[in-house]
Amino acid sequence: MSDFYTSVAEALQAMSLIEVIGVITGIAGVWLAARQHIWTWPVSIVSVTAYVFVFLDARLYADMGLSVFYIISSVYGWYEWLYGGKGHTERQVTKVSQRELWVLIALVVVFTGGLGYFLDNYTDADLSYTDSATTAVSLMAYWMMARKRLENWLVWLVVDVVYVGVYLYKELYLTAFLYFVFLILATVGYLDWKRDLEKHAPARVKV
Known about the structure:
Low-confidence stretches: none
Largest sheet: none
Transmembrane segments: 12-32, 39-58, 64-81, 101-119, 153-170, 176-193
Order of helices and strands: HHHHHHHH
Keywords: Cell membrane, Membrane, Transmembrane, Transmembrane helix, Transport
Function: Required for nicotinamide riboside transport across the inner membrane.
Structural class: mainly alpha
Helix content: over 70%
InterPro entries: NMN_transpt_PnuC (IPR006419)
Membrane topology: Multi-pass membrane protein
Distance between the termini: 57 Å
Mean pLDDT: 85
Strand content: under 5%
């Protein structure tokens, strides 16, 4: 039992202020997204900026690059939610088309193989292919969220389960807890967005 408490104490000491900021703003950002609140984007920018430094320290380079991309795509999502709807109005929840889904899956496979090979052969990255796969799927989910596709929450559910395992392995315990909370929030987000879609379905046209 003493070994357990020692491990917990060491883990707490290892948690940086930057990681704490990333966790708090990350939870807030996903909760706001589930509520379709526009402030999800600026809050998320704070979170992913913090995680650029967290992942750099953990040698999870694909995730670090993903965080940089999130900063850029958050600006895109911010604009899309405000003006991406028909007639430059607020974007509404829609479902992903079959063609769109297959294109995204193909891009995920190509991205995973290419980035995984590069990281495995030319860097000291840990978990190269796992890191690359979660990065690719996360890119897919983030783009779908920016476009307000309902199924983004289902993609997040899958990738967040993997992330919990990865961050426990890397001893990023607070971040692992963050992604466990994300699992709960993704479930809430899916149910809320689905109700909203069904409520307004007759009046909505996918754009």
